[in-house]
Structures are given as C-alpha cells and as structure tokens.
Amino acid sequence: MHGRGGVALTGAWRTGPRTLHGFYGNGFPDLFQLGPLQNAGAVNFVHVLDEQATRVAEVVAEARRRGAGAVEPTEEAERAWVDTIRKKAAGLYESQAECTPGYYNDEGVPRQRSESYGDGPVAFHALLREWRASGGMDEVLADAR
User: Fold this and answer.
1) Which family does it belong to (predicted)?
2) What's the predicted TM-score (pTM) here?
3) Can you give the residue ranges of every domain in the chain?
4) CA–CA distance, 22 with 11 (Å, rounded to integer)
5) Contact (CB, 8 A) for 77 and 140
C-alpha cells in the first residue's frame, strides 16, 4: 500500500498507526480501512463492521455532495485522534489487566500500548455522530477546506 509521493503505509506507520477514527490517514487519500485499529471493538464484530461501513458511506456521500476531490484527514485531525487513542487506551489496559486471562488480554498480560478507543463502542459511535454533526467532515474533505 502506497500513498502520496510513493510512501509505503508501513513506512508512514513505522512508529505506530496514525489514523482519524481508524478509517483514514493523512497522506493516503481515498484509502478507507475497516477493522479494530484505532476505533472501538465489541463482542459482535459484524455489528462493528456495519457501523464502520455506515460511517465511511456517510463521508463518501458528503464528499460527493460537496464535490470534494479526495477524502483525507488533516495532519492536525490525525494527530489529535492518535492523542485521544493514547489517553483513552490507558484505562483499557488497567481494565484488561484485572480480567480473567483470555485471548482479548493476551492471557492476562495485555499489551502496554493499545490501539483501541478505550471508552468502548457506544461512546465511539456517539462521538462519530457528534463529530459529523459539528462540522468534522471539514477535517477529511480535502477540497472542502
């Protein structure tokens, strides 16, 4: 996977993933990612993917409505989201360290650094609805800035 200027995604993420909401990254226009990275997971992964697909579809529809040339987050929006992930993940680590060992916490030894939104899926999807309602689309629609 290569972005603007031929930069490989693995190179851009050499110090760790950088996205906005786990869906898109600066330097990689029109690349949409679905999955558990830098957003909120849940027990029902099919539901998570459905929510994510809905959010991406909303962004694409808005990009078309505005005539935007690309969907790509600003560096500032991406940096702010990564900071949010780091802050929210601390509580997730503490919670998982106290849980009965299982696959979700690496048999009782969770990773020190998580790439999940620590407040959970309900809060994450509410945050995305609020983000969109409050003009957040301006952070990802390149030609609309």
Assistant:
1) Belongs to the FAD-binding monooxygenase family.
2) 0.83
3) 4-144
4) 17
5) yes
What 3 state SS string does the chain have?
CECHHHCEHHHHCCCCCCCECCCECCCCCCCCCCCCCCCCCCCCHHHHHHHHHHHHHHHHHHHHHHCCCCECCCHHHHHHHHHHHHHHHHHHHHHHHHCCCCHHHCCCCCCCCCCCCCCCHHHHHHHHHHHHHCCHHHHCEHHHC
Contact 1, 17 (CB under 8 A): no
- Rounded Cα–Cα distance for residues 119 and 85 (Å): 10
Q: Which residues contact 85 (CB under 8 A, 6 or more apart)?
A: 38, 114, 115, 116, 117, 118
Contact 124, 40 (CB under 8 A): yes
Q: What confidence tens digit (pLDDT) does each residue in 10-60 have?
A: 999 998 899 999 999 999 999 999 988 898 878 888 998 999 999 999 999
On the question of pLDDT at 144 being above 60, the answer is no
Looking at residue 145, what is its pLDDT?
44
Scan for tokens 């780091």, then name that residue: 86
CA angle 111, 117, 121 (to 5 degrees): 125
Fold of 4-144: FAD/NAD(P)-binding domain (3.50.50)
